[in-house]
Amino acid sequence: MHLDSMGVDLSRLADLLVYDSRQPLLFNTGLFLILFTLFVIVYRALRPWRVARMIFVILFSIYFYYKASGECCLILLGVAVSDYVLGMCMQGARSLTRGRTAVMKLIVVLNVTVNVGLLAYFKYFGLLIDTVNSFFTTHIDPINVILPAGISFFTFRSISYIVDIYRGHTDACRNPLDYLFFLTFFPPLLAGPVVRAKDMLPQIKANPVATHEMTSEGIYLIILGIIKKMVIADFISGNFVDRVFDNPALYSGFENMMATFGFTIQLYCDFSGYSDIAIGIALLLGYRFKENFNSPFKAANPTEFWHRWHISLSTWLRDYVYIPLGGNRCSKPRAYFNQFATMVIGGFWHGASWMYVIWGATHGALLVVHKMTRGFLPSATETETIVTDNGEVEMVTVPSRFAPVIKGFNMIVTFLLVSAAFMLFRARSMEDVGMMWHQIFHDFHLSVAPQFIESYMTIVLAMTVGYFVHILPSRVTSPLKRGFMASPVIVQAIALALILLVAIQVRSSDIVPFIYLQY
What we know:
Layout: H1 2-17, H2 30-45, H3 50-69, H4 73-93, H5 100-136, H6 151-167, H7 176-184, H8 197-205, H9 212-246, H10 253-284, H11 302-308, H12 311-325, H13 332-349, H14 354-373, E1 381-387, E2 393-399, H15 403-426, H16 430-442, H17 449-455, H18 457-468, H19 474-486, H20 489-506
Antiparallel strand pairs: 1-2
């Protein structure tokens, strides 16, 4: 009897450890918590042996990706091998006396072709067939292509690595383990942030050890990410936002508007929550990534919003798309076009749907309009003339007397514009978008607001917390973070356990994947 039950348990354990498309290995699963705990124990034990620890991390990262995307892990390994070979070829091309530039450009073209080709096949081939069928009334059968998880993120890292070698910003990896570690490192593998080789390779070579401060900060970020994702984002999504976006005609304009605001907050909490957890896990292992979100709803205009939202992607697009297009080193009309084209490409990067392209074009238009009109918009600063101690007259910029009012007004307008654009991001089709706007303009019914608040009190509370905690000034949040980091380890562990317990209690029966895993 005992052996039979053991056989059943071992069989179930084996099923858990192999790839299952219905149950991928994600940060918000119990299996990951168990595996990561065991991983950290072995990782720290291998500290004296750098190579052994690197191989262990690489193997765990590949297994993590296998559990999330099955046999597509072979694509990740193929990209790693291709990058290493091309990087060494680029390094060798630097020693050429003739034809050096041409060879290096050819290597960049090969790398970009490989990565864009992967994206085109796995992400956009089906969209191409659907578009051809729509325009030419053909009946070409689509090919069922499985999208590798996180392919957009590791191909972006691949391109930046080769381009940075070309530009002289970093040297090629001579040790293949260093590059394989960089490209497969599991915390940012599935949904970012987009980590660059020039930032991470020096850390890899240093064989870092997580300090007490890094560990405390990592736990703090993981707790913050869990709250954002599992307590706020998943709750808003499953209990309100998804219902409205699936059937907008069944709801009043007021409810459609609230669902749009709700999705904006949900997307922020979901994606920044993943980034917080990924950055926190990396800190526990001794690696520090740059901040990926910086209170984007504090932005007072569309340009500032993209300086605060998904920073690793917006700076990647700036450095590898906008600047190569000419940036602002040209006429104003051309600079505006470069800005618009970059955002369209950024929208297209998100997925195989024309809705993403339209969303990117909308943000591009907002950025261009802001740059064209910012001289006429209300400003929170004003210029004053002062006389220095030396008797010289200088012009200085000081806060306007109405700065708080102007700043608040600009924040609200920016949030409304961003939310309207995110309606395009979430809706299934332009018909649904049209229906939502129809309901908002022609069937608003503000009278349902009291009933809505009463019926969806917990949703309203979650949205309010998600928004207002986000915009709290640093003078409020910084002491909280410092106090947590200064607390004993046992207190931090208890806090993490309590947050996990709360998250389990409020979550739905099924694990909700992170939104950006599909990109």
